[in-house]
Amino acid sequence: MQEINHTTALIQKVLIFAVRTPDVADRQVYFLFSIRQMEDILLETLVTPVPFSRSYLKGITQWQDKVVPVISLEECLGLESSNHRKDTRLIVLRIPTKDAGQLSYCRIMMQVVPPFRMLSLPIDCDPVSDEWIPERHLVRGVYEWENKFLLVVHMEKILGGVIADSRENKMAS
Amino acid sequence: MMQKMKELLLFQVGELQVGMDLSFVRSIQDAPNNTSKQIEKHNRFAPLTADHDISIYNLSAILGNENSSGNTENKKLIVVNTKDRPVGLIVERVHRVIKADIDMIEPLSPIFRGPALSCFPMVLKHKHEGRLILLMSPQSLVNIVRRMQKPQDLRDGLDSKIRDESRSEIKSADTVIAEMIMNSRQNVMEWEGNQSII
Known about the structure:
The complex is a heterodimer of chains A (173) and B (198).
Chain A: H1 2-11, E1 13-18, E2 28-34, E3 38-42, E4 57-63, E5 66-71, H2 73-76, E6 89-99, E7 102-112, E8 117-120, E9 126-128, E10 139-145, E11 148-153, H3 155-159, H4 162-172
Parallel strand pairs in A: 2-11, 5-7
Antiparallel strand pairs in A: 1-2, 1-8, 3-6, 4-5, 6-7, 9-10, 10-11
Chain B: E1 5-13, E2 16-21, E3 25-30, H1 36-40, E4 43-49, E5 52-58, H2 59-62, E6 76-80, E7 87-91, E8 93-101, E9 105-107, H3 114-119, E10 122-128, E11 131-135, H4 138-146, H5 151-156, H6 160-181, H7 194-197
Parallel strand pairs in B: 2-11, 5-7
Antiparallel strand pairs in B: 1-2, 1-8, 3-6, 4-5, 6-7, 9-10, 10-11
Helix pairs in contact in B: 4-6
């Protein structure tokens, strides 16, 4: 019984942290991730750059026994960068994938700026337009909450390389 | 119980340490001199032996190392087998040959796609100065570079030629991975004097 309560509590928690981009309509923008997606927060790691990769892909690093790509989510979404703070952290996100019908997890590491804030669901928020996001197809939704925008990203699409297809199609057309 | 080991040649390209399946390697020698202007254009044809001309690629320039110059003094030339014929790769230094358990080798994440994924389909979880080691497919690298017309295209990485290339390269990456992981040494090596160089 205790375990069930614990799981329920995890499902209902989300973490938000600031997006390193200028305010939109006088509102600061935050990424929102479920606690279940978060695996670790690191102070620093050494990143090996991968030649020929797109600029939002910063390279690879080792986390535990896994090789993990390091990305800039802001660049990936085509957002203007605004924050050059040095006190950044790295978070490890896990993304569910299906491998031969079996559920498994891939990991992505991304650079973020503290502080992190944990919220309990439900949040009293309203869905708003995502027109200001260049790569909006990679976003599940944008919500207005306490004079902030909360941005929920489609990590499965990013991991699957959908961003590349989209940009190529745009250029082709 | 038999251990599944791969022999890998580790070498330095700019700031990056790169590895390559030893079965691709034919020989290692000093890089040819007085080729700076031609090598800045990434490749040239040079008479390496009496009866063979081979293409030579300056990996530092290709992989976007800003500090790279056309000066090949003190650099090494690794001659590798590709599908058509051998090619030469100029690198900063040749470090050593290691035997790595294949459990230490992982595919590069599919998030990279395109030329990055086809040129570096695998990663060795053997750290050098804290960084992982990318394992290169010389065939994929040569395929991409041959289609480049301008050096700038290489740095941009998003040029349409590269994108076209990346589409076709994604398929061939599977083949490369299979070669690197599954195959035993198929190529006949001409490994002369490598011990003294390494």
